[in-house]
Amino acid sequence: MKRILSTALLATALPFAANSFAADYTIDTKGAHAAINFSVSHLGYGWVVGRFNEFEGTFSYDPEKPDESSVEVTIDTSSIDSNHAERDKHLRGGDFLDVDKHAEATFKSTSFKVSDDKKATLVGDLTLHGVTKPVTIDVAISGMGKDPWGSERAGFSGTTSINLTDYGIKNILGPVSETIDLNLYIEGVKKK
Amino acid sequence: MALLMVSLFAVGLYMTDLGYYDSLYHVLPWWHKSFGLLVMGLLLFRIIWKISNTKPAALPTHKPWEVTLATWTHRALYVLIFLIGISGYLISTAKGKGIEFFDWFEVPAFQELSADATDLVGEIHFYLAWSLILLAAAHAAAALKHHFIDRDDTLKHMTFRKQR
Predict the structure, then answer these.
(1) Are A130 and A168 in contact (CB under 8 A)?
(2) The pLDDT of residue B161
(3) Which positions carry the signal peptide feature in this UniProt record (chain A) (predicted)?
(4) What is the pLDDT of residues B80-107, one digit of tens each?
(5) ipTM score of the complex?
(6) Is A174 in Cβ contact with B92 (below 8 Å)?
(7) Which of A29, A112, B58, B75 has the fewest C-beta atoms under 10 angstroms from its C-beta?
């Protein structure tokens, strides 16, 4: 009886499995195989590098139909970490992220265009500090395949730059620190 | 100690509004933290002193309710100073790094705090500092009232001046 049931289940599940080749992935924040890092010029001489420790997201990617790919990420803005207690407190405050009012930043993709098998351009809406603007991210397709623990994974990295003032954040750091470079590392585990 | 704390309060308000390119941007918080730690040390010394020495007797002209009020005000001032010191320490050590005590040594961090907790402690630090300053001002006003209106020796008791 058990065997009949499981065969029946398998039979109904199979067509879906074949169809959903455009796989959905959960970004592996649990295993910390993803990172949202930023760097900002300090005085025009050096750099401040930081990260957002808490975020989550999903993406959909099919190497056969890459144009149908999409990604959504939600970032907990209060998790900003530049490895400096007082600076992080300042960054969370009203001068910068204002995390009491804007607890989340989100990114939702609108298009994904592959230029060759290792490179792509991702366009999407970034909502930060309550302001939504389109951003273009240069993507490097890192790789995909089976992992040693019974799942499948796909990985990407991306770079882009945003301007503080575009998102209604007053730039009190001076013109050299207006542009924030973002370095993004995403690895997803295929949903089963 | 009172003068130190009024300075800390003023500098605390001023330094948190400084622009990034202000030459005092790094210096003032550094002094604020060092002197804040110094006040905590002095507070400890003062409480030990208070316990191990006899308390100066209240003037016989003081009414019982005035003595009670003064006693509780003193206690409230000590508690406020202590809590302000602790909350300040918690803000600066939230990432597990210690605080420099002048150029002398570093007071280590014993804990780390989450972002939300650090921001809450920051609010507490701010409002407790205001409470302390207002309570101290009321206390000082009461002392001045004794000096100029009641014309007794209360203020002289509070300062270093010897009694007649």
Answers:
(1) yes
(2) 59
(3) 1-22
(4) 999 999 999 999 998 888 898 988 988 8
(5) 0.72
(6) no
(7) B75
Single-letter code of the amino acid located at A21 = F
Contacts 24+ apart (CB under 8 A), B100-108: B100/B30, B100/B33, B100/B34, B101/B34, B101/B37, B101/B38, B102/B34, B107/B37
Chosen for mutation from B118, B123, B124, B125 (greatest number of chain A CBs closer than 10 Å) is B118
The whole-angstrom separation of Cα B115 and Cα B126 is 17
pLDDT at B151 over 60: yes
Provide, as residue numbers in chain A, all residues whose Cβ is less than 8 Å from the Cβ of B95: 83-85, 88
pLDDT(B26) > 50: yes
Q: Which of B19, B91, B115 sits opposite A92 (nearest CB)?
A: B115
Q: Say if strands A70-76 and A119-128 run parallel, antiparallel, or are unpaired.
A: unpaired
Is A85 in Cβ contact with B95 (below 8 Å)?
yes
Q: What per-residue confidence (pLDDT) applies to A4?
A: 52
Domains of chain A: 22-190 (2.40.128.110)
| Tokens, residue A159 | 């770079």
Beta strands in chain A (DSSP E): 23-27, 35-42, 46-52, 55-61, 70-76, 80-81, 104-116, 119-128, 131-146, 152-163, 179-190
B130: burial class by Cβ within 10 Å (0-12, 13-18, 19+)? exposed
State the smallest CA–CA distance between residue A84 and chain B in angstroms: 7
| H or E element that contains B69 | helix B64-92
Specify the DSSP element, H or E, that contains B100: strand B99-101
Does the distance separating the beta carbons of A86 and B92 come in below 8 Å?
yes
User: Is A143 within 8 Å of chain B by CB?
Assistant: no
The answer for A 154-173 residues in CB contact with B (under 8 A) is 172-173
Amino acid A139 reads V
Distance from CA of A79 to the nearest CA of B (A): 7
DSSP character at residue B57 = P
Chain A residues close to B119, C-beta within 8 Å: 78, 89, 92-93
pLDDT tens digits, one per residue of A13-35? 444 444 445 689 999 999 999 99
